[in-house]
Model the fold of this input.
Amino acid sequence: MEQKMNDFESLAQKAYARFGELAKRYYYKFKRPVVTSGGVPCMLFLGNHSSGKSSMVNWLLGGGVQDVGLAPTDDGFTVIMHGETEEDVCGPAAIARLPEEFDGLKLFGADFLQRLRVKVRNRDLLRSVTLIDSPGMIDSAAGTVNRSYDFEGVVRHLAELCDMVFFLLDPDKPGTTGESVTVFSRCLSGVEFKLRVLLNKCDAFSSLYDFARTYGTVCWNLARVLHTKDLPKIWTVYSGEQREATGGIDLSDFNRHREEFLDVVHDAPARRRDNVFSQALSDFLGLSIRMCMVNHASRRLCAFRIAMLSFCAVISLAAAAFTWQALLPRGSVLATIAGILAASLGLTLGWFLVRLVVYLQRHRLADAVDATFADEYRSSIAVGTSDNLRQAWNAIRDETAQVIREAPLRLPFFGEFRRRQLDSAAAKVFASFQKGV
Ligand SMILES: Nc1nc2c(ncn2[C@@H]2O[C@H](COP(=O)(O)OP(=O)(O)OP(=O)(O)O)[C@@H](O)[C@H]2O)c(=O)[nH]1
Ligand SMILES: [Mg+2]
Done:
Protein backbone atom coordinates (compact mmCIF):
# COMPACT_ATOMS: atom_id res chain seq x y z
CA MET A 1 0.00 0.00 0.00
CA GLU A 2 2.72 2.42 1.04
CA GLN A 3 4.70 1.47 -2.05
CA LYS A 4 1.65 2.22 -4.20
CA MET A 5 1.26 5.61 -2.55
CA ASN A 6 4.92 6.37 -3.16
CA ASP A 7 4.33 5.43 -6.81
CA PHE A 8 1.45 7.88 -6.91
CA GLU A 9 3.53 10.64 -5.34
CA SER A 10 6.52 10.06 -7.60
CA LEU A 11 4.24 10.02 -10.67
CA ALA A 12 2.72 13.30 -9.49
CA GLN A 13 6.19 14.75 -8.94
CA LYS A 14 7.30 13.66 -12.42
CA ALA A 15 4.22 15.27 -13.96
CA TYR A 16 4.87 18.52 -12.07
CA ALA A 17 8.49 18.55 -13.26
CA ARG A 18 7.54 17.69 -16.84
CA PHE A 19 4.90 20.39 -17.20
CA GLY A 20 6.51 23.11 -15.07
CA GLU A 21 8.02 24.89 -18.06
CA LEU A 22 4.75 24.64 -19.99
CA ALA A 23 2.86 26.14 -17.04
CA LYS A 24 5.23 29.13 -17.05
CA ARG A 25 4.49 29.81 -20.70
CA TYR A 26 0.82 30.06 -19.81
CA TYR A 27 1.54 32.18 -16.72
CA TYR A 28 0.08 29.42 -14.57
CA LYS A 29 1.34 28.87 -11.03
CA PHE A 30 1.13 25.40 -9.56
CA LYS A 31 -0.04 25.40 -5.95
CA ARG A 32 2.22 22.50 -5.06
CA PRO A 33 5.01 22.38 -7.64
CA VAL A 34 7.09 19.91 -5.64
CA VAL A 35 5.85 16.66 -4.12
CA THR A 36 8.48 14.89 -2.05
CA SER A 37 7.84 11.23 -2.76
CA GLY A 38 7.17 9.44 0.51
CA GLY A 39 7.22 12.81 2.30
CA VAL A 40 5.92 13.30 5.81
CA PRO A 41 2.52 14.98 6.26
CA CYS A 42 2.45 18.40 7.89
CA MET A 43 0.16 20.03 10.43
CA LEU A 44 0.02 23.74 11.04
CA PHE A 45 -1.09 25.30 14.33
CA LEU A 46 -2.49 28.82 14.07
CA GLY A 47 -4.32 30.97 16.57
CA ASN A 48 -4.39 33.96 18.87
CA HIS A 49 -1.42 34.61 21.03
CA SER A 50 -1.52 32.49 24.18
CA SER A 51 -4.24 30.26 22.79
CA GLY A 52 -2.10 27.23 23.67
CA LYS A 53 -0.50 26.29 20.33
CA SER A 54 2.92 25.53 21.77
CA SER A 55 1.41 23.68 24.76
CA MET A 56 -0.61 21.54 22.32
CA VAL A 57 2.51 20.74 20.30
CA ASN A 58 4.37 19.86 23.51
CA TRP A 59 1.54 17.64 24.66
CA LEU A 60 1.48 15.75 21.35
CA LEU A 61 5.25 15.23 21.49
CA GLY A 62 5.45 14.33 25.14
CA GLY A 63 6.69 17.73 26.36
CA GLY A 64 9.75 19.92 26.37
CA VAL A 65 9.96 21.03 22.75
CA GLN A 66 8.43 24.51 22.64
CA ASP A 67 8.52 27.38 25.17
CA VAL A 68 5.17 28.29 26.64
CA GLY A 69 4.05 31.32 28.60
CA LEU A 70 1.30 33.85 29.14
CA ALA A 71 3.08 36.71 27.36
CA PRO A 72 3.49 36.46 23.56
CA THR A 73 6.14 33.74 23.37
CA ASP A 74 6.73 32.77 19.75
CA ASP A 75 7.65 35.46 17.26
CA GLY A 76 8.39 33.09 14.37
CA PHE A 77 7.43 29.84 12.74
CA THR A 78 8.92 26.62 14.11
CA VAL A 79 8.94 23.44 12.05
CA ILE A 80 9.36 20.40 14.27
CA MET A 81 10.46 17.34 12.33
CA HIS A 82 11.95 13.94 12.93
CA GLY A 83 15.65 13.14 13.00
CA GLU A 84 17.88 10.77 14.97
CA THR A 85 20.19 13.58 16.06
CA GLU A 86 18.37 16.39 17.82
CA GLU A 87 19.32 19.88 16.65
CA ASP A 88 17.95 23.40 16.26
CA VAL A 89 18.56 25.37 13.09
CA CYS A 90 17.55 29.02 12.82
CA GLY A 91 17.43 31.59 10.06
CA PRO A 92 18.20 31.05 6.38
CA ALA A 93 20.05 27.78 7.10
CA ALA A 94 16.75 26.33 8.37
CA ILE A 95 15.25 26.27 4.91
CA ALA A 96 18.07 24.01 3.69
CA ARG A 97 17.22 21.54 6.45
CA LEU A 98 13.60 21.23 5.23
CA PRO A 99 12.29 19.01 2.42
CA GLU A 100 12.20 20.54 -1.06
CA GLU A 101 8.46 21.14 -0.74
CA PHE A 102 9.23 24.08 1.55
CA ASP A 103 11.49 25.85 -0.96
CA GLY A 104 8.70 28.28 -1.86
CA LEU A 105 9.18 29.91 1.56
CA LYS A 106 12.41 31.49 0.32
CA LEU A 107 10.29 33.97 -1.63
CA PHE A 108 9.12 35.61 1.60
CA GLY A 109 12.52 37.21 2.07
CA ALA A 110 15.26 37.57 4.64
CA ASP A 111 13.06 39.07 7.38
CA PHE A 112 10.85 36.01 7.36
CA LEU A 113 13.78 33.58 7.17
CA GLN A 114 15.25 35.21 10.30
CA ARG A 115 12.09 34.08 12.07
CA LEU A 116 12.07 30.54 10.78
CA ARG A 117 13.33 27.79 13.04
CA VAL A 118 13.65 24.05 12.49
CA LYS A 119 13.74 21.74 15.48
CA VAL A 120 14.81 18.20 14.79
CA ARG A 121 13.61 15.85 17.51
CA ASN A 122 13.76 12.13 17.95
CA ARG A 123 10.11 11.58 18.93
CA ASP A 124 7.98 8.75 17.61
CA LEU A 125 5.04 10.86 16.44
CA LEU A 126 7.34 12.92 14.24
CA ARG A 127 8.10 9.87 12.10
CA SER A 128 4.56 10.17 10.70
CA VAL A 129 3.85 13.90 10.96
CA THR A 130 5.73 17.21 10.95
CA LEU A 131 4.29 19.92 13.21
CA ILE A 132 4.50 23.66 12.56
CA ASP A 133 4.01 26.08 15.43
CA SER A 134 3.28 29.69 14.50
CA PRO A 135 3.53 33.10 16.17
CA GLY A 136 0.34 34.09 17.98
CA MET A 137 -1.89 36.63 16.31
CA ILE A 138 -2.18 39.92 18.12
CA ASP A 139 -3.63 43.39 17.66
CA SER A 140 -1.36 46.35 18.18
CA ALA A 141 -2.68 49.67 19.48
CA ALA A 142 -2.97 50.88 15.88
CA GLY A 143 -5.34 48.07 15.03
CA THR A 144 -3.10 45.61 13.27
CA VAL A 145 0.33 44.26 13.95
CA ASN A 146 3.18 45.53 11.85
CA ARG A 147 5.25 42.55 10.90
CA SER A 148 8.33 43.07 8.77
CA TYR A 149 7.37 40.23 6.43
CA ASP A 150 4.22 39.14 4.64
CA PHE A 151 2.63 37.20 7.52
CA GLU A 152 -0.61 36.54 5.67
CA GLY A 153 1.32 35.32 2.63
CA VAL A 154 3.36 32.91 4.75
CA VAL A 155 0.22 31.58 6.47
CA ARG A 156 -1.49 31.09 3.11
CA HIS A 157 1.55 29.33 1.68
CA LEU A 158 1.90 27.01 4.66
CA ALA A 159 -1.83 26.33 4.79
CA GLU A 160 -1.69 25.21 1.15
CA LEU A 161 1.33 23.04 1.82
CA CYS A 162 0.12 21.48 5.06
CA ASP A 163 -2.29 18.60 5.23
CA MET A 164 -4.21 19.88 8.22
CA VAL A 165 -4.61 23.33 9.73
CA PHE A 166 -5.66 23.69 13.36
CA PHE A 167 -6.95 27.07 14.40
CA LEU A 168 -6.88 27.45 18.17
CA LEU A 169 -9.07 29.85 20.07
CA ASP A 170 -9.01 30.31 23.79
CA PRO A 171 -11.82 31.24 26.16
CA ASP A 172 -10.30 34.66 26.98
CA LYS A 173 -10.30 35.93 23.40
CA PRO A 174 -12.69 33.78 21.38
CA GLY A 175 -11.73 34.95 17.91
CA THR A 176 -11.96 38.67 18.36
CA THR A 177 -8.38 39.44 17.46
CA GLY A 178 -8.23 41.48 14.26
CA GLU A 179 -5.32 39.58 12.77
CA SER A 180 -7.02 36.20 13.22
CA VAL A 181 -10.14 37.52 11.54
CA THR A 182 -8.01 38.63 8.59
CA VAL A 183 -6.26 35.29 8.44
CA PHE A 184 -9.59 33.50 8.42
CA SER A 185 -11.14 35.63 5.73
CA ARG A 186 -8.14 36.07 3.44
CA CYS A 187 -5.59 33.32 3.96
CA LEU A 188 -7.71 30.28 4.63
CA SER A 189 -10.34 30.63 1.95
CA GLY A 190 -10.14 27.68 -0.42
CA VAL A 191 -8.45 25.49 2.18
CA GLU A 192 -11.39 25.30 4.57
CA PHE A 193 -11.54 21.54 4.03
CA LYS A 194 -8.26 21.20 5.93
CA LEU A 195 -9.28 23.56 8.68
CA ARG A 196 -10.23 22.36 12.16
CA VAL A 197 -11.23 24.86 14.79
CA LEU A 198 -10.18 23.99 18.32
CA LEU A 199 -11.69 25.83 21.26
CA ASN A 200 -8.82 25.20 23.63
CA LYS A 201 -8.36 25.34 27.41
CA CYS A 202 -11.81 23.92 28.05
CA ASP A 203 -10.64 22.76 31.45
CA ALA A 204 -10.52 26.41 32.49
CA PHE A 205 -14.28 27.12 32.24
CA SER A 206 -15.72 28.11 35.58
CA SER A 207 -19.26 26.86 34.77
CA LEU A 208 -21.44 25.46 32.01
CA TYR A 209 -22.92 28.93 31.53
CA ASP A 210 -19.41 30.30 31.05
CA PHE A 211 -18.73 27.62 28.41
CA ALA A 212 -22.04 28.25 26.58
CA ARG A 213 -21.34 31.98 26.35
CA THR A 214 -17.85 31.44 24.98
CA TYR A 215 -19.00 28.82 22.49
CA GLY A 216 -21.74 31.16 21.27
CA THR A 217 -19.25 34.00 20.84
CA VAL A 218 -16.90 31.77 18.85
CA CYS A 219 -19.72 30.71 16.49
CA TRP A 220 -20.85 34.31 16.09
CA ASN A 221 -17.36 35.48 15.16
CA LEU A 222 -16.65 32.57 12.84
CA ALA A 223 -19.90 33.01 10.96
CA ARG A 224 -18.84 36.53 10.03
CA VAL A 225 -15.53 35.52 8.51
CA LEU A 226 -15.86 32.02 7.09
CA HIS A 227 -17.21 31.75 3.56
CA THR A 228 -18.71 28.30 4.00
CA LYS A 229 -22.44 27.62 4.13
CA ASP A 230 -22.17 25.55 7.28
CA LEU A 231 -20.30 26.24 10.45
CA PRO A 232 -17.21 24.01 10.75
CA LYS A 233 -17.08 21.57 13.59
CA ILE A 234 -15.56 23.13 16.67
CA TRP A 235 -13.57 20.77 18.82
CA THR A 236 -13.61 21.62 22.47
CA VAL A 237 -10.27 20.45 23.83
CA TYR A 238 -7.50 21.12 26.29
CA SER A 239 -3.91 20.01 26.30
CA GLY A 240 -2.04 18.01 28.91
CA GLU A 241 -3.05 15.08 31.06
CA GLN A 242 -6.74 14.33 31.63
CA ARG A 243 -7.85 16.23 34.67
CA GLU A 244 -10.76 17.56 36.70
CA ALA A 245 -12.10 20.92 35.56
CA THR A 246 -11.16 23.84 37.78
CA GLY A 247 -14.79 25.06 37.66
CA GLY A 248 -16.13 21.61 38.45
CA ILE A 249 -17.84 20.98 35.06
CA ASP A 250 -17.82 17.51 33.57
CA LEU A 251 -14.93 17.18 31.11
CA SER A 252 -15.89 13.80 29.62
CA ASP A 253 -17.30 15.29 26.38
CA PHE A 254 -14.18 17.40 25.99
CA ASN A 255 -12.12 14.25 26.50
CA ARG A 256 -14.04 12.64 23.64
CA HIS A 257 -13.13 15.56 21.36
CA ARG A 258 -9.52 15.24 22.45
CA GLU A 259 -9.58 11.59 21.38
CA GLU A 260 -11.00 12.57 17.99
CA PHE A 261 -8.32 15.22 17.65
CA LEU A 262 -5.60 12.68 18.46
CA ASP A 263 -7.09 10.27 15.90
CA VAL A 264 -6.85 12.96 13.23
CA VAL A 265 -3.23 13.66 14.13
CA HIS A 266 -2.36 9.97 13.92
CA ASP A 267 -4.25 9.61 10.64
CA ALA A 268 -2.05 12.26 9.04
CA PRO A 269 -0.56 10.05 6.27
CA ALA A 270 -4.04 9.41 4.82
CA ARG A 271 -4.70 13.16 4.86
CA ARG A 272 -1.48 13.80 2.96
CA ARG A 273 -2.53 11.36 0.22
CA ASP A 274 -5.90 13.07 -0.18
CA ASN A 275 -4.30 16.43 -0.08
CA VAL A 276 -1.63 15.76 -2.71
CA PHE A 277 -4.35 14.19 -4.84
CA SER A 278 -6.77 17.09 -4.60
CA GLN A 279 -4.03 19.66 -5.17
CA ALA A 280 -2.67 17.77 -8.19
CA LEU A 281 -6.23 17.46 -9.51
CA SER A 282 -6.85 21.17 -9.22
CA ASP A 283 -3.35 22.10 -10.50
CA PHE A 284 -3.50 19.95 -13.64
CA LEU A 285 -7.14 20.65 -14.39
CA GLY A 286 -6.49 24.37 -13.90
CA LEU A 287 -3.52 24.28 -16.29
CA SER A 288 -5.49 22.31 -18.85
CA ILE A 289 -8.31 24.88 -18.80
CA ARG A 290 -5.83 27.76 -18.93
CA MET A 291 -4.15 26.19 -21.97
CA CYS A 292 -7.46 25.58 -23.67
CA MET A 293 -8.57 29.19 -23.19
CA VAL A 294 -5.26 30.81 -24.12
CA ASN A 295 -4.81 28.51 -27.13
CA HIS A 296 -8.28 29.48 -28.27
CA ALA A 297 -7.46 33.19 -27.93
CA SER A 298 -4.11 32.75 -29.66
CA ARG A 299 -5.72 30.90 -32.60
CA ARG A 300 -8.26 33.67 -33.00
CA LEU A 301 -5.58 36.36 -32.83
CA CYS A 302 -3.41 34.51 -35.33
CA ALA A 303 -6.32 34.18 -37.76
CA PHE A 304 -7.02 37.89 -37.31
CA ARG A 305 -3.41 38.83 -37.95
CA ILE A 306 -3.27 36.76 -41.13
CA ALA A 307 -6.56 38.17 -42.39
CA MET A 308 -5.59 41.77 -41.60
CA LEU A 309 -2.09 41.42 -43.06
CA SER A 310 -3.43 39.88 -46.26
CA PHE A 311 -5.98 42.64 -46.53
CA CYS A 312 -3.32 45.33 -46.00
CA ALA A 313 -0.94 43.65 -48.46
CA VAL A 314 -3.63 43.58 -51.15
CA ILE A 315 -4.54 47.24 -50.53
CA SER A 316 -0.84 48.26 -50.57
CA LEU A 317 -0.21 46.39 -53.82
CA ALA A 318 -3.31 47.93 -55.37
CA ALA A 319 -2.18 51.41 -54.26
CA ALA A 320 1.32 50.78 -55.64
CA ALA A 321 -0.02 49.51 -58.97
CA PHE A 322 -2.43 52.45 -59.26
CA THR A 323 0.32 55.02 -58.48
CA TRP A 324 2.76 53.36 -60.84
CA GLN A 325 0.26 53.36 -63.69
CA ALA A 326 -0.86 56.95 -63.04
CA LEU A 327 2.74 58.24 -63.07
CA LEU A 328 4.05 56.05 -65.92
CA PRO A 329 3.60 58.80 -68.60
CA ARG A 330 6.08 61.01 -66.62
CA GLY A 331 8.83 58.40 -66.68
CA SER A 332 9.17 54.81 -65.55
CA VAL A 333 11.81 55.53 -62.81
CA LEU A 334 9.60 58.13 -61.13
CA ALA A 335 6.57 55.80 -61.42
CA THR A 336 8.53 52.89 -59.87
CA ILE A 337 9.81 55.00 -56.93
CA ALA A 338 6.32 56.40 -56.29
CA GLY A 339 4.86 52.88 -56.49
CA ILE A 340 7.39 51.56 -53.95
CA LEU A 341 6.67 54.52 -51.65
CA ALA A 342 2.94 53.92 -51.92
CA ALA A 343 3.41 50.23 -51.10
CA SER A 344 5.65 51.02 -48.08
CA LEU A 345 3.21 53.62 -46.78
CA GLY A 346 0.35 51.19 -47.20
CA LEU A 347 2.24 48.44 -45.37
CA THR A 348 3.30 50.75 -42.50
CA LEU A 349 -0.28 51.95 -42.03
CA GLY A 350 -1.42 48.34 -42.28
CA TRP A 351 1.05 47.29 -39.57
CA PHE A 352 -0.30 49.95 -37.16
CA LEU A 353 -3.84 48.98 -38.07
CA VAL A 354 -3.12 45.30 -37.33
CA ARG A 355 -1.66 46.18 -33.92
CA LEU A 356 -4.68 48.30 -33.07
CA VAL A 357 -7.14 45.64 -34.16
CA VAL A 358 -5.26 42.88 -32.30
CA TYR A 359 -5.22 45.04 -29.15
CA LEU A 360 -8.98 45.59 -29.38
CA GLN A 361 -9.54 41.94 -30.19
CA ARG A 362 -7.55 40.80 -27.12
CA HIS A 363 -9.78 42.95 -24.91
CA ARG A 364 -12.87 41.55 -26.59
CA LEU A 365 -11.67 37.96 -26.11
CA ALA A 366 -10.76 38.66 -22.47
CA ASP A 367 -14.22 40.05 -21.79
CA ALA A 368 -15.84 37.01 -23.37
CA VAL A 369 -13.92 34.31 -21.45
CA ASP A 370 -17.04 32.88 -19.83
CA ALA A 371 -18.76 32.38 -23.16
CA THR A 372 -15.60 30.83 -24.63
CA PHE A 373 -15.32 28.48 -21.63
CA ALA A 374 -18.95 27.39 -22.01
CA ASP A 375 -18.35 26.82 -25.71
CA GLU A 376 -15.09 24.87 -25.33
CA TYR A 377 -16.42 22.65 -22.54
CA ARG A 378 -20.02 22.33 -23.70
CA SER A 379 -19.88 18.53 -23.98
CA SER A 380 -18.61 18.07 -20.39
CA ILE A 381 -21.16 20.59 -19.17
CA ALA A 382 -23.93 18.82 -21.11
CA VAL A 383 -23.20 15.39 -19.57
CA GLY A 384 -23.12 16.89 -16.09
CA THR A 385 -19.43 16.31 -15.26
CA SER A 386 -18.92 19.99 -14.73
CA ASP A 387 -18.78 20.57 -10.96
CA ASN A 388 -15.01 20.22 -10.66
CA LEU A 389 -14.61 21.98 -13.94
CA ARG A 390 -16.61 25.02 -12.89
CA GLN A 391 -14.79 25.23 -9.59
CA ALA A 392 -11.41 25.04 -11.32
CA TRP A 393 -12.54 27.63 -13.86
CA ASN A 394 -13.77 30.04 -11.19
CA ALA A 395 -10.41 29.80 -9.44
CA ILE A 396 -8.44 30.84 -12.54
CA ARG A 397 -11.00 32.89 -14.44
CA ASP A 398 -9.79 36.42 -13.61
CA GLU A 399 -6.13 35.58 -14.08
CA THR A 400 -6.85 33.89 -17.40
CA ALA A 401 -8.72 36.97 -18.65
CA GLN A 402 -5.76 39.09 -17.58
CA VAL A 403 -3.31 36.84 -19.46
CA ILE A 404 -5.41 37.02 -22.63
CA ARG A 405 -5.75 40.79 -22.31
CA GLU A 406 -2.17 41.77 -21.55
CA ALA A 407 0.51 39.11 -21.32
CA PRO A 408 3.06 38.65 -24.09
CA LEU A 409 2.28 35.19 -25.43
CA ARG A 410 5.11 32.80 -26.26
CA LEU A 411 3.09 29.65 -26.63
CA PRO A 412 4.51 26.30 -27.71
CA PHE A 413 3.90 24.94 -31.20
CA PHE A 414 1.04 22.46 -31.19
CA GLY A 415 -0.45 23.87 -27.97
CA GLU A 416 -3.47 21.56 -28.18
CA PHE A 417 -1.23 18.52 -28.60
CA ARG A 418 0.69 19.56 -25.46
CA ARG A 419 -2.61 19.95 -23.64
CA ARG A 420 -3.62 16.41 -24.56
CA GLN A 421 -0.26 15.18 -23.27
CA LEU A 422 -0.94 16.98 -19.99
CA ASP A 423 -4.43 15.49 -19.71
CA SER A 424 -3.20 11.96 -20.27
CA ALA A 425 -0.28 12.37 -17.79
CA ALA A 426 -2.76 13.72 -15.21
CA ALA A 427 -5.12 10.80 -15.87
CA LYS A 428 -2.25 8.37 -15.18
CA VAL A 429 -1.45 10.14 -11.89
CA PHE A 430 -5.07 9.91 -10.78
CA ALA A 431 -5.38 6.28 -11.83
CA SER A 432 -2.32 5.41 -9.75
CA PHE A 433 -3.91 7.21 -6.78
CA GLN A 434 -7.08 5.19 -7.16
CA LYS A 435 -5.12 1.93 -7.31
CA GLY A 436 -3.45 2.85 -4.03
CA VAL A 437 -6.65 3.76 -2.17
N1 LIG B 1 -5.89 25.73 31.54
C1 LIG B 1 -5.18 25.55 30.44
N2 LIG B 1 -4.14 26.38 30.18
C2 LIG B 1 -3.44 26.18 29.05
C3 LIG B 1 -3.77 25.15 28.12
N3 LIG B 1 -2.91 25.22 27.09
C4 LIG B 1 -2.07 26.25 27.34
N4 LIG B 1 -2.38 26.83 28.52
C5 LIG B 1 -1.68 27.99 29.12
O1 LIG B 1 -1.82 29.09 28.24
C6 LIG B 1 -0.63 29.89 28.25
C7 LIG B 1 -0.14 30.11 26.84
O2 LIG B 1 0.25 28.87 26.30
P1 LIG B 1 1.21 28.75 25.03
O3 LIG B 1 1.24 27.33 24.68
O4 LIG B 1 2.50 29.47 25.25
O5 LIG B 1 0.37 29.57 23.97
P2 LIG B 1 0.79 29.96 22.47
O6 LIG B 1 -0.46 29.94 21.68
O7 LIG B 1 1.91 29.12 22.01
O8 LIG B 1 1.28 31.45 22.67
P3 LIG B 1 2.19 32.35 21.70
O9 LIG B 1 3.36 31.53 21.32
O10 LIG B 1 2.53 33.53 22.52
O11 LIG B 1 1.33 32.69 20.55
C8 LIG B 1 0.38 29.14 29.13
O12 LIG B 1 0.40 29.77 30.39
C9 LIG B 1 -0.19 27.74 29.25
O13 LIG B 1 0.12 27.14 30.49
C10 LIG B 1 -4.89 24.30 28.45
O14 LIG B 1 -5.26 23.39 27.71
N5 LIG B 1 -5.55 24.54 29.60
MG1 LIG C 1 3.77 29.57 21.28
